[in-house]
Amino acid sequence: MTAPVFVTDGPLPDGGGPASLILDGAEGRHAVSVRRLRVGEEIVLTDGAGTGAVGTVSAVEGKDRLVVAVDAVRSEPPPAPRITVVQALPKGDRGELAVETMTETGVDAIVPWAADRCITQWKGERGAKSLGKWRATAREAAKQSRRLWIPEVTEPMTTAAVARLLAGAAFAGVLHESGTRPLAAAPLPATGDIVLVVGPEGGVAPRELEAFAAAGAEPYRLGPTVLRTSTAGTAAAALLLTRSGRWG
């Protein structure tokens, strides 16, 4: 298994020479008390923005602090094309499931969308708490899947805001059962943003489809079956990552 990944808020070395880093706080506590890392074990510290310091644990201090001797620093360029999934708000914890699996698959950004037919609505303190859960889920899933890039989870968007996002994309699409074209045959760009909309369990409303079509987003289908909103984005992302060459 590859070395476990932890997120650090401090600056990472530039790779110009020997360096040591401290991992403490919640991440240090997880590394020491949960993962039980010990001296000599490999570890990766990342800033979540494409850079990772690869090293070994040189000291464990208490229950929430360890020292890492950095062996190398590596940086990954931003993935291209960039894949954004606009995710309609599912019921219960299905939203966190969608965020988790899309992050593990390789999605670069996730946009919470309050669609007309969403039963769940994010308002006030409840909405802020739900957004925090999505962001925490993305962070933990990125670590679990050994990613150096943590997906962005944006502020919730209205249909009008989603339409503007789609209009600026290199490729824009909506997963919908009325689509006559398979996503597997859609023309994909080599660079730029791919933005895909996943509707709620009740489906994308006609007025939303019209707004998205006006922004240049056509309806596409994944296959002969209809997936749940919490799994459709992950299945579509896997297809896009394969076709774009990012899984090559």
Any overview of this molecule?
The structure is a single chain. With 248 residues, the protein is of the alpha/beta class. Helix content is 31%, strand content 26%. The longest helix has 21 residues, at 124-144. The two termini are 21 Å apart. The model has no long low-confidence stretch (mean pLDDT 94).
Tag the structure with descriptive keywords.
248 residues, alpha/beta, Alpha/beta knot, 2 domains, 7-stranded parallel β-sheet, 5-stranded mixed β-sheet, 6 helices
SSE topology sketch:
Blueprint: E1 5-7, E2 19-23, H1 25-34, E3 42-46, E4 51-60, E5 66-75, E6 82-88, H2 94-105, E7 109-113, H3 124-144, E8 152-153, H4 159-167, E9 171-175, E10 181-182, E11 193-198, H5 206-214, E12 218-221, H6 229-243
Helix pairs in contact: 2-3, 2-6, 4-5
Shape: elongated
Proportion of residues in β-strands: 25-35%
The major β-sheet equals: 7 strands, parallel
Q: Which radius of gyration do the C-alpha atoms yield?
A: 20 Å
Please list the strands of the largest sheet in the order they lie side by side: 8-7-6-11-9-12-10
Instruction: Enter the CATH topology name of the largest domain.
Output: Alpha/beta knot
Number of strands: 12
Q: Span from first to last CA?
A: 21 Å
What is the H/E string?
EEHEEEEHEHEHEEEHEH
**What is the second-level CATH architecture of the largest domain?**
3-Layer(aba) Sandwich
